[in-house]
Design brief:
Blueprint (H helix, E strand, L loop, with lengths): L9 E5 L3 E6 L16 H8 L13 E2 L8 E7 L2 H12 L4 E9 L6 E4 L3 E4 L8 E3 L5 E5 L3 E11 L2 E10 L6 H8 L23 E9 L4 E5 L12 E6 L3 H39 L4 H12 L6
Parallel strand pairs: 4-12
Antiparallel strand pairs: 1-2, 2-4, 3-4, 5-11, 5-12, 6-10, 7-8, 7-9, 10-11, 10-14, 12-13
């Protein structure tokens, strides 16, 4: 439960193209503000000065974002080509992410699909906040979809709480925090969406547990260890387990692999059809002489065959 330090950079995966980090909670990825004395960018500069790329704005190519309060898997591309591959995977919505969270109350349904549209909250005093479509002052709401699966029920301190797996099908700002709040199960320690009321927990209990990024011939996959366990935070006391984190993440990966195989098969069919069309076009139209020759050849066959 210690605050982040410059030298405290947890690396989940490292190869020639990518780093996947286990980002600390309450830590910005990058910043141009002078008062920001510690960011993931600065941690990377400290650990990997040889990887610094001065042609980029912050020295490193972050493939996606994580909120300041959120911990977990964060991918960094180590070249322009690698960044391009990650961009294509994200833009085609092929990247699979799964989050762990502790939420207030006991969630009754084992599985929920949350589909509230989310827009910017324009009410006075709600700066940098999002809201669901039915909220007065909700500006430009867009469709959002989150899958919620219950893992454990128990208590956080003296209050009922539930550990859940969250899968964002879409990727709106603050989507998971807003969706959990909208169904009456706000994330434990969410200072912003509790309107500054939930101050007892030491952090917002939201963690990016899985990142799977298919890149054609290879897949980048990393899992960030579950921080919501009694050994790390004794305030969390699980009482009933419906499924383990490992089981839940394995199921997410299994479905992702099946989806990737289906998409690959569909793309192969499209490519085959394209090549057949191109081959037919390259052959050109059949000449009149060839057509007449074929007609004569057919006429030579007996009619009763």
């Amino acid at each position: 439960m210690e605050a982040a330090r410059l030298e405290q950079l947890s690396v989940l995966l490292e190869d020639a193209d990518y780093l996947v980090l286990d980002k600390h909670w309450d830590l910005r990825i990058d910043s141009t503000r002078p008062r920001e004395t510690l960011t993931v960018q600065q941690q990377l500069r400290h650990r990997y000065p040889q990887l610094l790329d001065p042609s980029t704005r912050h020295g490193f190519r972050f493939c996606h974002q994580l909120d300041y309060a959120t911990s977990g898997a964060l991918c960094v591309a180590l070249s322009r080509q690698a960044a391009g591959g990650a961009f294509r995977a994200f833009s085609q919505r092929r990247v699979v992410k799964a989050y762990l969270a502790l939420v207030r109350g006991h969630v009754k349904e084992e599985h929920m699909t949350i589909d509230y549209a989310i827009g910017k909250d324009t009410r006075e005093g709600q700066t940098h906040m999002m809201c669901v479509e039915a909220t007065p002052g909700c500006d430009n709401p867009k469709p959002c979809l989150t899958e919620l699966t219950v893992l454990q029920t128990g208590r956080y301190g003296d209050d009922p709480a539930t550990k859940v797996l969250l899968q964002p099908v879409t990727g709106r700002t603050h989507q998971l925090r807003v969706h959990c709040d909208a169904v009456g199960h706000a994330i434990v320690g969410d200072y912003t969406y509790s309107l500054r009321a939930d101050t007892a927990p030491y952090r917002t209990m939201l963690h990016a547990a899985l990142l799977r990024m298919p890149l054609g011939e290879r897949t980048v996959q990393a899992e960030a260890p579950d921080p919501f366990v009694p050994d790390v935070d004794p305030s969390w006391c699980p009482e009933q387990t419906l499924r383990s984190v490992d089981e839940a993440l394995a199921e997410v990966v299994r479905k992702a692999v099946a989806t990737e195989a289906r998409l690959a098969a569909e793309e192969a069919e499209v490519e085959l059809a394209r090549r057949r069309t191109a081959s037919t076009r390259s052959a050109g139209p059949v000449s009149e002489a060839a057509t007449e020759g074929l007609r004569r050849w057919l006429q030579e066959w007996p009619a009763d065959l």
